[in-house]
Amino acid sequence: MTGGGGTVGQLNVIRTVDGVRAAIAGWRRAGETVALIPTMGYLHEGHLALVDHGRRLCQRTVASLFVNPIQFGPTEDLDRYPRDEAGDRNKLQAAGCDLLYAPTVAEMYPPGFATGISVTGVSGGLCGAARPQMFGGVATVVTKLLLQTLPDVAVFGEKDYQQVLVIRRFVRDLDIPVRIEGAPTVREADGLALSSRNSYLTAAERGQAPVLFQTLTEAVGRLQEGGEVGPVLAEARARILAAGFSKLDYLELRDAETLEPLERTDRPGRLLVAAWLGRARLIDNVAVPEGKAQ
Ligand code: PAF
After folding, report:
1. Is 154 in the pocket of ligand 1 (CB under 6 A)?
2. pLDDT at 164 over 50
3. How far from the centroid of its chain's Cα atoms is residue 20's Cα?
4. Contact by Cβ (8 Å): 272, 287
5. 227 near 251, Cβ under 8 Å?
6. DSSP-derived pairing of the beta strands 6-8 and 179-183
7. Residue 91 and which of 25, 41, 223, 259 are 20 to 30 A apart at CA?
């Protein structure tokens, strides 16, 4: 059902700002806490783990579904981004989510919309360099979603590690009264991080894809044993390209909190990668604990 709101099965679907505010106000009047799980849909177990995370912290959970056009560059995959709202609704209902907020593009960006949130520092480099449009678009839409729903908690997946840090940054900078929770990456049995974009992989590419996580894990092991950062990263990059990936946007060791480049593992770090396999741009990251002195 479209319009202000409606019930499909048991899960209420709301498409307007007024509608979502009214639904949440009812919960607030009953003294209930609220978690928001922002998504772009085509939900998988990773998203459902975010819902679970929200349900452990709050009495009510709202999932948003909005494929945000302003975070895609002109040559990126906005038009072919996978969509399945009916399937998403069923999955959310089975996961115990209380409400699906699925605004239209016109509701989110009405004619004359002219405002953007821009975050410097942590959004530079890595995905911010490869996809210059992305973090401004993410910051703008997440700010709007937070102000529309005013949740106690908002939950994001750590597969998009830089995104979580960007969101924490502007939430702090703009004094938005919400707790941002990062939830661990959910993986297939062979290690591949779950992603809606995995649906772009052919069967052969799906067979090659786990090399990304295997390579990160092995590189962390070598760094822990005292391996030098430069050679360990160079070898990891070469291995990913040799496994059939066509291009690496980056594979880098960064400070886990600031995302500044790390030359040695003398502080908690994060090893982050973005690489192209066929039509899919896959990203992943793993923690790098402080290692032996180098
Ligand atoms: O991670 C995503 O799916 C999106 O970037 C988000 C946070 C829902 C904003 O559109």
Report:
1. no
2. yes
3. 22
4. no
5. no
6. unpaired
7. 25
180 token code pair: 């941002």
- 293 found inside a domain: no
pTM of whole model > 0.70? yes
38 lines ligand 1 (CB under 6 A): yes
Q: How many CB atoms lie within 10 A of CB 30?
A: 9
- Both tokens of 243, joined, read 């496994």
Q: What is the CATH number of the domain that holds 250?
A: 3.30.1300.10
d(CA 77, CA 161): 21
Atom of ligand 1 nearest to the CA of 39: 8
Cα 109 from Cα 107, distance rounded (Å): 6
> Would you say the C-alpha torsion 152, 157, 158, 160 has a positive or negative sign?
negative
Residues 171 and 37 in one domain: yes
Residue type present at position 41: G
Confidence of residue 10 (pLDDT cuts 50, 70, 90): confident
Cα 22 from Cα 2, distance rounded (Å): 16
* Whether residues 95 and 60 fall in one domain: yes
Tokens of 240: 């990913």
- Dihedral of alpha carbons 83, 85, 90, 96, sign: positive
Among candidate residues 150, 183, 216, the one where a domain is terminated: 183
Structure tokens that stand for 87 in this block: 């399937």
Which of 134, 157, 183 is at the close of a domain?
183
Is the C-beta atom of 41 inside 6 A of ligand 1?
Answer: no
- Is 47 annotated in the active site? yes
| 291 confidence band (pLDDT: 50, 70, 90) | confident
How much distance in Å is there from the Cα of 224 to the middle of ligand 1?
32
pLDDT of 3 strictly over 50: no
Query: Structural domain of residue 280, as residue ranges?
Result: 196-288
Residue at 227 is within a domain: yes
| Ligand 1 centroid – CA 279 distance (Å) | 20
